[in-house]
Amino acid sequence: MPRLTPLERDELSDFASLFNDLDAFFGFLPNDYLTMGRRPEILAAIAQLTQAIMLSENNTLPMNTRMLVTYMTSRAAGCQYCIAHNVALIERHGVNQEQIDNVMEYETHSAFSAAERAALTVAKNANTNPNSVTDDEFDALRPHFDEGQIAEIIALIAMMSFYNRWNDTMATTLERPAANAAQNWIGKQGWSIGKHA
After folding, report:
1. In the chain, where are the structural domains located?
2. Among residues 184, 180, 191, which one has the least CA distance to residue 74?
3. Which backbone phi and psi does 8 adopt, to 5 degrees?
4. 3-class state of residue 109 by DSSP
5. How do residues 53-71 score in pLDDT, each as one tens digit?
6. CATH fold of 63-196, please?
7. Does the pLDDT value for residue 189 go beyond 80?
8. Nearest of 71, 47, 90, 64 to residue 160 by alpha carbon
9. Is 94 a residue whose pLDDT tops 80?
10. What are φ and ψ of residue 114, in 5° steps?
11. Which residues of 11-33 are buried (b: 16+ CB within 10 A; e: fewer)?
12. How much of the chain, in percent, has pLDDT values that exceed 70?
């Protein structure tokens, strides 16, 4: 059960256009936005930030890399809600099953490129407490990504850190499409809906 009751979609009619965009991107409206709606300025700000980081036409980081970075960030943080959302997006936007099945062995598994390995290392280590990204790990991004793309990677990690903390703390109820995707894709790896049921 969520720790804060989300509003109903029709109570946030000022956000109808945003919600339609989210429906198109996710295939459903995530419940966390309905909880953020308790403070519309928070909802507006995080929606604008997410749009700039994840969906801007100026972004040049490949979508597959974006999806892997956000997935690893949530895996490292342990937020079951965000892990499921990332899996739903991965299913929708085309990361292959082999990469998801082996994401925790990314350093040695042949399904991952050197560029993906560098990005995943930073995503994983940025989520330790304290942050354990080293200069060498950061520098390992440079042969594969330009500085704008590196900024995108770090922004994705920071954005997901907000969502991970929000949803894990709020115990946001997971939507059925995301729960189904997670169960189908990573249920055998031990994923569980937990407090997000």
Report:
1. 15-55, 63-196
2. 191
3. -80, 150
4. coil
5. 988 889 999 989 999 999 9
6. AhpD-like (1.20.1290)
7. yes
8. 71
9. no
10. -60, -40
11. ebeebeebbeebeebbeebbbbb
12. 100
